[in-house]
Every structure is written in structure tokens, then in C-alpha cells.
Specification:
Elements lengths: L5 E4 L9 H19 L3 H15 L9 H7 L6 H7 L9 H8 L4 E6 L3 H8 L8 E4 H5 L5 H11 L6 E5 L2 H10 L3 E4 L16 H6 L2
Parallel strand pairs: 1-2, 1-4, 2-3, 4-5
Helix pairs in contact: 1-2, 8-9
Amino acid sequence: MKQIELISFDAEGTLVTPDFSQAIWHETIPALYARKNNLEPARAKEIVAGEYAKVGDQRLEWYDVGYWFEYFHLGSPEPAIKSCVPKVGYYPEVKEVLSSLEGRYKLVVSSGTPLELLEPQLESIKSYFAAIFSSISLCKGLKTPQFYAHVSELTGVSPERIVHVGDSWQFDYLNSRQAGINVFHLDRKRGSGDSLTSLLELETRLAQL
């Protein structure tokens, strides 16, 4: 059995539901764009979604809310972010699981979400975590193997004693594994293969390492 010291969690899709993010990207930004350009809301959504698609999720700009507010000439993103905070929600088992793990492991968040969006998402559960890492804010990059190696360095815990949990096959599973970190893929919809379907399965799987 491996001696695990640190558990790293992805944020959105793992701890945090998509509601806040959906509100920012697919409701608030299109609504502001529609108002600025005197467009019907549906048409504004089409245009904004099309611009997102041109960039794609392999580029940093996709995740950078400041970039998009500047791109669409919408002013400061801060009022919009604050307006969406009531949409923040957590999966039902999250607080139970974090409470159970707390004290036995060091807990951190390792996310690709920029801090200006990540911090409001984690506000109600941040007390569980020793540190919160954003690859975009910390490393100016996506969640690469190098990012996970940097998390290992910053926490002072060697990769073989870290477990990462996240829902992205590429950014959470493959890339953390390349850094030598133990990893569980979370697939809430299907639970394909060895994937977790809920964080409630995590402790059992930890005992099997």
C-alpha cells in the first residue's frame, strides 16, 4: 500500500458544479454583448459561442475571462463575476468527502481555472484546503505535466505520494500521470472503465493503492 500524503482535486466538474461557469460564459457575457450591440439575446449567444469555438480549449484565451471581456469590449469582468456568485454550487457528496479526508491528508486544489473565477467558486469550502493552485494564474499555461510537477515542488510532497482526482481525461488523468502522480479519473455520467462515478468512491480506491 502506497503512503499517500496529499490529495489534489480539480475544481469544476469535480468539486464544483458547472452552474457558475455556465452563467458567466453562456448567459452573462452574451447578455452584455447583446446589450452593447443592440442584438437579440439568441443572436448574441450564437456570435459569442462562435468566437469561443474559434479559440478552442487548447489555448489559454479560452479560460481567460479578462481576455473575453476585452475582446468583446465589455469593460471590467468583476461586476459580472460577482453577479454570478449565487450560482456557485457543489456536488452533493463534496463536503462529506472533504470532511472525512481532512486531517488524514493534506488537501489542495489543482485547477485550470483562473484565480478570479476559481476563488469565488471555492469560497464556501476553501477552509478544507492547504493551498489552491491555478495553472493559468501560476504557470501561465494549461494543466500540463510540468504544472503537476510544480505542485509537487511547492507542496514539498513527492509525486508518488500525491493522488490527483479530476474529470478531464487529458488535463487531469493523462497529464498528472505523466508527472508520476497517482490519479483517479472522475466520470460522473458513465463511470467508464476504472473511473470513479462519485467522490464517495475515493476512500475505497485510496485503500487499494
